[in-house]
Design brief:
By secondary structure, this protein is α/β, with parallel strands linked by helices. It has a single domain, classed as 3-Layer(aba) Sandwich (Rossmann fold). The protein contains eight helices and seven strands. Helix 3 links the parallel strand 1 and strand 2. Helix 1 packs across helix 4 and helix 3 runs parallel beside helix 4. The longest helix is centred in the first third of the chain and has 14 residues.
Amino acid sequence: MPQDHSPTDPASHVAFPKRIKTFVKRAGRTTTGQSNAIAQWSDQFVIKYQAKALDWKNVFETDQPVVFEIGFGMGDATASIAKTLPELNFLGCEVHEPGVGALLMHIHEMELKNLRIISHDAVEVLQEMIPDHSLQGIHIFFPDPWHKLRHHKRRLIQAPFIESLLKKLKVGGYIHCATDWEPYAVQMRQVFQTFEQLNLQNSEDGLYSRRPSYRSSTKFEKRGLKLGHGVWDLVYLKSQP
C-alpha cells in the first residue's frame, strides 16, 4: 500500500511553477489513417480553441451532462467510456495529433454522437471555454508522473489546478484520476484531501477508490498489471461548500 511522504520528504519542498502545462509535445508519426480522419471528420467533431465560453447545447445538440477529459492519449478508453455511457456527453482534450486522429477514427467506427475533441492546452481551455459550475465530471487518466524529484513541479495534480477544476464542476459532480505510479498516487491523495468540498467515493480502505466499471483497463494497464504494477483510482465528489 502506498505510504505518505513525511513532512521532511524533499518532495514537499519542491517549488511549483506558476503556470503548469497539461501536456508535453511528444514525437510521433501520424499514420495515413489518422491524417485522413483529421481531414474528414475534424469539422464535425473537433472544436476550435476560442477565448469564449462554450454553450454545451450548441456543442452537442443535447442537454445531457458533460464530462471533460484531460489528455486522452490515443483515445481507446475515451471512446469506450462514451460508448458505455451514452447518457453523458464527453469533451476530450489532447494536443498529440496521432491521438486526435485515432480518436476520430474510433468516433466514426463506433458511431459515437456524444463525444467531441479539442486540441489545445487544457489549462487555457478550462480558463476560457468551460463555463463555471457546468461539468458533471472530469477525467484525468494516467497523467505524466514526472518520476525525477526535480521534475515533480511539473506534475499536473497540484492544489492550484484542483482549485481551478472545482470552479468548473457542478455540486454533485466528480473528479476521477487514475495513475500507475505509486508515489504520484500518494501525492494526488494528499492534494485532494486539502479540499473539504471533495469526498472520496467507492473506497474499501479509505485511501483509494475501486475502479469504476466504466473505466475499462487499457492494453498498457493490463500489461503493467501482469508485471505486478499497481493502478490507483481516486474518485472525489464535490459537495456544497
